[in-house]
Amino acid sequence: MALENLSLEVDADGVALITWDMPGRSMNVLTEGTIAEFAEIIERLQGDDAIKGAVITSGKAAFCAGADLSMMQAFTKDYRDTAARDGEKAATAELFERSRGFSQILRRLETCGKPLAAAINGTALGGGLEVTLACHHRVVANDPKIKLGLPESQVGLLPGAGGTQRLTRLIGASEALQIMLRGLPVDPQKAADLGIVHEIADAGDIVSKARQWVLEVGEAVQPWDRDRFKVPGGTPYTPKGMVTWSVANALYRKETYDNYPAQRAIMSCVYEGLLVPIDVGLRIEARYFTKLVRGPESGNMIRSLFLSKQSLDKLARRPADIAASRVEKLGILGAGMMGAGIANVSAKAGIEVVLLDRDMEAAEKGKAHAAAAMDKAIARGKASEPDKDALLARINPSADYADLSGCDLVIEAVFENRDIKAEVTAAAEAQLADSSIFASNTSTLPITGLAGASARPENFIGIHFFSPVEKMQLVEVIMGDKTSDTALARALDYVQAIRKTPIVVNDARGFFTSRVVKTYIAEGHHMLAEGVPAAMIENAGRMAGMPVGPLALNDEVALDLSWKIMQATKADLGDAYQSDAMDGILDEMVAKRERFGRKNAKGFYDYPKDGEKSLWPGLSEIAGEQLSPDDVDVEELKQRFLTIQALETARCFEENVLTDVREADVGAIFGFGFAPYTGGPLSYIDTLGAPAFAERCNRFAEKFGDRFVTSNLLREMANSEETFYTRFPPEQSRRSAA
Q1: pLDDT tens digits, 58-74
Q2: pTM of the prediction?
Q3: Sheet harboring 460-465: ordered strands across?
Q4: Where are the domains positioned within the chain?
């Protein structure tokens, strides 16, 4: 067959140079076409006696980014199609053989009898690293930006081309598990220290170094194929190995709560694989890989965490007929934590920033936040003093609205108070050109109402950041009733420039993210009022897959902010406002006891200056009559947390606050940490099935109240047994968010 993605050239000394360089792509990825070409390469190596060995490298800046996850989606689809046609047993057998195809090819590569060296010129992840592990020698370029790793667990899979077996036999179970379970890459020096690579060399020398090894050493047998091979750190039943596994199991339970099948499968692959020869271990790996591909978690995670996020990063929701734009000068009103964070990420993107506050002292304090962040980056070796100087030169603190002149975009990040926001809106707009965009960073106040203070409501939009701005990937862009497509396009261009992921939602109180995460926090309050012990509430939240418990999250958000939002909502809705358990608890905590959360070291938790936070003992005074832990159904608590958030997301979709299923799932995971293993709240409903989800909601409504009443859309979908992703395909958003 003709080679398109790989090339093979043999020099005068009989060393073949295999170059991986996929046409039309910025990075190499594993596709079924590339896999077939690797098989062809092996045939040529084995069939040509003039070839003494080979060096594998990349013709691109990176070695390989891993497998094309669209291929994994195709695996799942083909499995389901075959199961529907020929039955599940036949479909599983077909999927098993297909899943282990590349693993078998790499096994043939390392046992072909010819010495193979990898010249790793750039980042090698997933299947890319697995290719190099099947080589007998590895040389990596001396560049700390290069990352080597097996991140498959982050999308619900395991390294399925021998990674669980080779990496473990190379560096031992303890180190291999840390790399695979967390999916975090290592740099070249760490890789060399662990023994993943054999040499580090200057980028221009890696091919010659690899070639030299082939000619001068040329051992064509892997360590695990030699007699008397011993696994570093021992097998599970050796004294050292037993310690490794007792610790590994404890950490696995602590970090995953057994929610992630991929991590469990990796543990099983490594444990079982160490007890048998590698060929049996590779078959074990393929069986677990097949099981994961069949399960819902991997498909949901691949779709939401990779494919959907990638589409949104590429501005899938941007109006196509608006010319591309770039913010050259940005104004930020309010130099507090949010404003300072926005200034920092914007300056990093090369944007000139005017950071304005009521006085220069406050504005300078905001700039100091960026300086402190750069100092930390310098200490970690991720930035230099010149980088810091350049960034700080782009942040201009000010107390004079006249300095906003020439700004393409202004973002207000002042207190959640309508009057203050109206005041700064008018003052800023007086300095701006008619074409400038004005955005509010409000987390709850409706954009249409705030735009009432604007002279140009068509240029008024919501750009809602999450705290801490530097770490949180998501930005929620909110369309007011009069917001134009031009304002939307320019807002999305800005979000892309600062390397964040945008979702677009329509206006409503709390929009999408704040509205849904409030239900998680409120459910924790309901449980507290019911007498569920606070520690069980917090643990159940984390066990359900949330990053923190609802009470701890409320402390982070600030209890007094929640209370102020509650007061503003009461004022806006009047008699239509419906109070619940959250109102009474917040009144007691904030108005009566001045417990504002982490900000004043007093909330649901106490925050001592020295030591870790702990639940406030006084909670028993404001909670319901304490239940015995033995009388509390923890599984039901977990289901309540996930169900209430998924139900509210479905309501947002029904009310057209959300218009694209991708934004619901990506926004929930990256905005407030909705259990990633589910793929997001709409994927969670689809996986359970609308009939089962509606039945659960009805049961909870009878037991816990009307907040669980099923929405009309969900009832329709339950009756017709539809899913969100089939009824509302992502490529066919119901309508523009405008």
Answers
A1: 999 999 999 988 888 88
A2: 0.91
A3: 395-398, 352-356, 329-333, 409-412, 437-440, 460-465, 474-479, 501-506
A4: 6-220+228-294, 329-504, 514-732
